[in-house]
Structures are given as C-alpha cells and as structure tokens.
UniProtKB/TrEMBL annotation:
This is Type II secretion system protein GspF domain-containing protein. The keyword Transmembrane applies. InterPro entries: GspF/PilC, T2SS_GspF_dom, T2SS_GspF_sf. One of its GO terms (cellular component) is plasma membrane. PANTHER family: GENERAL SECRETION PATHWAY PROTEIN, TYPE II SECRETION SYSTEM PROTEIN F-RELATED. It is a multi-pass membrane protein. Residues 17-140, 222-343 form the Type II secretion system protein GspF domain. It comes from Candidatus Berkelbacteria bacterium CG03_land_8_20_14_0_80_40_36. The chain crosses the membrane at residues 118-139, 159-185, 324-347. The lineage of its organism: Bacteria, Candidatus Berkelbacteria. It is found in: Cell membrane. Signal peptide: none annotated. Belongs to the GSP F family.
Length: 353
C-alpha cells in the first residue's frame, strides 16, 4: 500500500505532461526531444524515471504507446489506447488534447466528490475519536468508583467498561484485529460475486443509486465521445470502457452490448436491454445520433448532461447526509449518557440516601 502511494503519478501532473507534449509535437519538435525536455520539468522522481525509460525505448525504435504500455497500472488502459489510436491515425497531437481534456474532467469530478464527502468523513472521524477518548481517558478514571460502590451498572456501562479493559490490556491485538478486518473486507470486495451484490445494493439505495448511475453514464458518454472522435471503433471503445468502469452491473451490461454491436445490432437497440441502467433520454439521444450520423455529438451532449447531474447531486449530498449524521451523533451521545451519567446519578442518589 505504501509503495503504491510512492509509485503513483498525480492526475494533474499527467494532465500537464500530456498538454505540454501535445503543444511541443504540434510545434514540430521531435518526440524524443519533447520527452527529454518534459522529463526535466516533472517534479515526481518516479515519473522522471518512467519518462527516462520511455525515452530509451523510443531511441530503440519502440512506439510511444508500446513504451507507455509497460506502465499501464500508472496511466490506465484509456491512456494507452488513445495514444495507440493517435499513432495509427497520424493524429497524435489532437488525440493527446482529447486525452488531457478527459483526464481534466475526470480529475475535477473526483475533487467534487471528495469535497462533498469531506464533512461526513469529518463527523465520523470526530465520533470515533470521541469514543476512543472516552474509553482511554475518562472511563478508566471512573471505573474504580463504579466498582467500589457495588451498584448495578447499566448494560451500556458494562459494555463500555469491557471494551476499555480490552483496549488497555490487548491494544496490540485490537490493532491487529482492525487491520485484519480491513484487509479481509478489501479482499472480499475483490471477489466478483460479492462485488456484484454490493454494487446492486448501492444502485438501489435512495439518492446514492442515482448518483452512481449519473456518474457511470457521464463516464461512459465522455469516454465514448473521446474514443469515437479519436477513431476507435465502437466495439473496441466498449472494451476499453468495460475496464475503466468500477461498477460490475455496468461492466456486465457493456460486455453484452459490445457482443451485440459486434454482431451488427445497433448500439441504441443493444442498450435498450438494460432500462434500469440506461434511462430513456440516454437511449433516445443515442438512437437519434445513430440515425443522423451525429453519434459523436450525442455522446458529448449526454456526457455534459450527466456530468452536470453529478455536480448538482454532490452539492446536495451534505444536506442529504446531515440528518443521518445527526441521528448517529445523537445515538452516540445517548449511549455515552447511559454509560457514564446514569451510574454517576445512581452513586449520588445512594450517597444522598
């Protein structure tokens, strides 16, 4: 995990590199010279190392797409496929601009989603910290008082006391359990059958399901637009998008759509099979684009529409989540009140009596 953080390239650094490379190639500067110059500009040592290796490959006569293909994990399949398409069609400079636009759009969307989920994460973090603070600093001082008075403790207090004792004596074991639990969940989430169930549940959740659908449709539309106008055939474009989608429901649907289109079935007709994943307006506009020969524009139109929907919903996300967070915080406060305040009240009542 730590290695993956150091062996990664920031989205903005990729965008800047691609834009600069497109400008230099358009100016007639040879690709080797362009890569050499840009190697000196990038800040990431890992990126510098990759570009130096790519430059060596280029000097040996290897194509740019083949050189980057070694680093598909860092750049992604779309990156490699678009460069390969640009080389084959002789429009590498133009394709690089398309790629930079798509990466920039995707990067901005990721920032919006992170910003929208910051507040819920902050509240959950504060709640968790409050629980740990209570367990480590407050309750240990009160426990001797509770036990010495020989009073009947509420179940919430007993649970919290047992949890505190466990943390005090077996905190190392507790950390190992937490790590094992987290790792187990991550491994379980990678199992296809489990992923399908999880994705299906999320797609059917109130508000969240709509947000996921809009995000997937924006991703599919913008990728299809970028790939299609770069000269990639629809079947090949769908193959690339399947690998790019993070949702198994859409992956499975896109594979079937790809198989049907490869047999000559119209794209809009193939999409109609999945009304829960693709809304009527999406299907209608794609069908109109096919009939009028403006499919590229249709994808662009749909991409912009659903991207706007994602932005609007992410802005509404805090107002949707806030009541849920207030309920959770309220339950935590009630639990603390039952666990700590009630025994203190019992003690004062006994002393007063």
């Amino acid at each position: 995990m730590i290695m993956s953080i150091f062996n990664s390239i920031g989205a903005q650094e990729q965008i800047d590199f691609i834009n600069n490379l497109a400008v230099m190639l358009r100016s007639g500067i040879p690709i080797n010279t362009s890569i050499t110059t840009l190697t000196q500009q990038v800040k990431s040592k890992f990126f510098k190392k990759i570009l130096a290796d790519i430059n060596r490959e280029l000097e040996m006569g290897v194509s740019l797409s083949e050189s980057f293909a070694k680093y598909e994990k860092q750049f992604g399949k779309i990156f490699i496929s678009l460069i390969k398409t640009g080389e084959a069609s002789g429009t590498l400079e133009k394709t690089l601009v398309f790629l930079a636009e798509w990466l920039d759009r995707n990067n901005n969307l990721s920032k919006e989603i992170k910003a929208a989920t910051f507040y819920p994460k902050l509240v959950f973090g504060a709640t968790f910290s409050m629980g740990l603070g209570l367990s480590f600093f407050i309750l240990p001082k009160l426990m001797p008082v509770f036990t010495s008075m020989h009073i009947d403790l509420p179940i919430a207090t007993r649970l919290l006391m047992n949890f505190t004792l466990f943390l005090q004596h077996y905190w190392c074991f507790g950390i190992l359990i937490a790590i094992a639990f987290y790792t187990g969940l991550k491994l379980l989430a990678k199992v296809k059958a489990v992923r399908r169930v999880i994705d299906k549940i999320f797609l059917n959740l109130y508000f969240v399901g709509g947000l996921i659908q809009d995000y997937q449709l924006a991703l599919i539309s913008h990728l299809m637009h970028t790939l299609y106008k770069s000269g990639v055939a629809i079947e090949n474009a769908l193959d690339i998008i399947v690998e790019s989608s993070s949702n198994t429901a859409y992956q499975d649907a896109l594979r079937i759509i790809r198989d049907r289109t490869s047999k000559g079935v119209a794209l809009s007709e193939s999409i109609k099979q999945f009304p829960k994943l693709f809304p009527p307006n999406f299907i209608t506009i794609i069908a109109v684009g096919e009939k009028s020969g403006t499919l590229e524009a249709s994808f662009a139109q749909m991409g912009d529409f659903f991207l706007k929907e994602v932005y609007n919903k992410t802005k509404r996300l805090p107002t949707i989540v806030e009541p849920i967070l207030l309920v959770i915080m309220g339950l935590v406060v009630v639990f603390i009140a039952l666990a700590v305040i009630m025994p203190i009240y019992s003690i004062t009542s006994n002393v007063g009596g």
